[in-house]
Amino acid sequence: MERKFFNVILLGFGFMFVFTAFQTMGNIEKTILDSITQDDPSFTGDGYTSLAIIYATLAICNWLAPSVITITGPRGAMLIGAFTYLFFIVTFLFPRTWLLYVASVLIGAGAAAIWTGQGNYLTLNSDADTISRNSGIFWAMLQCSLFFGNLFVFIKFQGKTHIDLDTRNVVFGALTAVCALGIVFLLLLRPIRRPQVLDDVKTDVVNHEDDGPMEAFKGALKLFCTRDMMFLSCTFIYTGVELSFFSGVYSPSIGFTLSMGENAKQLVGLSGVFIGMGEVLGGALFGILGSKTTRWGRDPIVIMGYIIHVTSFFLIFINLPNVAPFGDTMETSYINPSPYLAMFCSFLLGFGDACFNTQIYSILGGNYSDNSTSAFALFKFTQSLAAAACFFYSSRALLSVQLGVLAVLASLGTAAFCRVEWAARSRARAAALEVIDDKVIPDTHLAENALHYD
């Protein structure tokens, strides 16, 4: 197997196991902490607050991540981040309110390091022809974490209306072991030299990957103020809000809808499984068709994700009661709550999320290959800030309000992404035609790139 592609596979396995632990924990955290509070009234930790702290810290620390990576390198940053994930999972074996929030701050800082390092390392192991394929394959492997972890939770929570201590400890212990296995895979990652610029039509490109810590921070600020990055930030904001919704609000809301039946709590894990199935199918599909999406453009996939998500928002609106995010309720919505429809919506949320995120990875790795560390850090900063805001209002806003916010942001984010993609395609076409007209590089491949821009 080619060395760079093998690195992508190792990266995928490492993140798959680390995030099997974390994403499963995020999906069930609200439900688990409510059960802990019932057993121990002195414990007052809240799942939404914990997740809000994680993403708020992640947003702040993303500004420092490029500087950290200039010192540790992408592999070192990912390892540091992975150990904070392990610590976060372990703390659930010893439930203390203060420990929960301290661990939330630490994992937020670690997440900035692991995700910025991942974006940089994936770019280093890709080129113009493989970035879409590698992004899709990595995303599919990463989202397998939702499938395996939540399938385990689905089995362990079967027939339970209250998650007892023994069940909780078995789940936490298993997730701790899986997270440790992911760290082993990250240790196996091999160093790679920075490749040439991904975009075939770029000229006079300055490499920012070897800047020092202060230069990296200034470069991130400068990049954030560019027109294209400001437009892309609208898309990043939407992915952050929908991430917090499907990862921390939607599945618990299903479990709180008691009219779903006596196995309502069990559906929390099953919802995560269906979200994971949608994510994996989307990532695998766009990975296999990576060369085709490079030719056709990224915008059709993002538009498809938009249509899928808006459809799912409407179905959730008519299926779940308005107060479902707040706790157990016997209320109903416009139809009697249907577990089958709820699982279908979970699948749509996952598949639509894959549409957005695989193309974001592709456009950042392709258009910002000379400054990928800062580009991915800004992506995670904006996404995480939006996710933190969503978790803060999730415990107060009715379901209909949250769905309305998602629909508006989806429209803005999709329009902004298409604007950047179309503008980049026009610039590439103009540059290629100019080169051909001047007969500097009489290569017909450039003309093909102008018609089928990455």
TrEMBL record:
GO terms for cellular component: membrane. It is found in: Membrane. The keyword Secreted does not apply. Its main location: membrane. The chain crosses the membrane at residues 7-28, 48-65, 77-94, 100-124, 136-157, 169-189, 230-250, 270-289, 301-320, 340-364, 376-395, 401-420. It is a multi-pass membrane protein. It comes from the Eukaryota. SUPFAM superfamilies: MFS general substrate transporter. Pfam families: UNC-93. Belongs to the unc-93 family. This is UNC93-like protein MFSD11. It comes from Papilio xuthus. The gene is LOC106119053.
